[in-house]
Amino acid sequence: MSVNTYRAYNNWGGKSLYGWNSPTGAAVKVSFDRPYEMGNLLISAPAVGTGEFLITVQPADQGPPGGYEYPFVRFLEHEGYDVTYSTDEDTAENEAALLNHKALLVVGHDEYWNCRSAQT
Predict the structure, then answer these.
(1) How far is CA 3 from CA 24, 51, 69, 82, 109, in A?
(2) Distance (Å, rounded) from C-alpha 51 to C-alpha 24?
(3) Which of 59, 25, 26 is nearest to 42 (CA)?
(4) pLDDT tens figures, 55-100
(5) Phi and psi for 76 in degrees, rounded to 5?
(6) Which pTM was predicted?
(7) Per-residue pLDDT reduced to its tens digit, 90-114
(8) If you placed Cys at 49, which of 8, 36, 44, 112 could pair as Cys (CB 3.0 to 4.6 Å)?
(9) Number of domains in the chain
């Protein structure tokens, strides 16, 4: 799950890391310590602040349907795949966990990654 991207786009309280959905200008940092905004159907897919995990609708004239991860999770589980779920934060905290798996699938819109281990 791309929770860092969710956090960047979340404009709860009027600001995100993006000017297009921050009426008084983009923020310079954001936090997980706030609710998710529902977004604006006229500007983007609804619930863009939740990373479009659960919301899978968008007007046809505004591009492809929103929602990436939830439909993919439904597909994997319906087809009986043996999967493990992780967020980008989990992976940054424990990169070695990737070695226990055959593949890493990042589904959808993942723009932000933590580089903690590269800094230590």
Answers:
(1) 24, 7, 11, 22, 10
(2) 22
(3) 59
(4) 655 555 655 555 678 778 888 999 999 999 988 888 888 889 889 8
(5) -55, -45
(6) 0.71
(7) 888 888 988 989 988 888 778 887 7
(8) 36
(9) 1
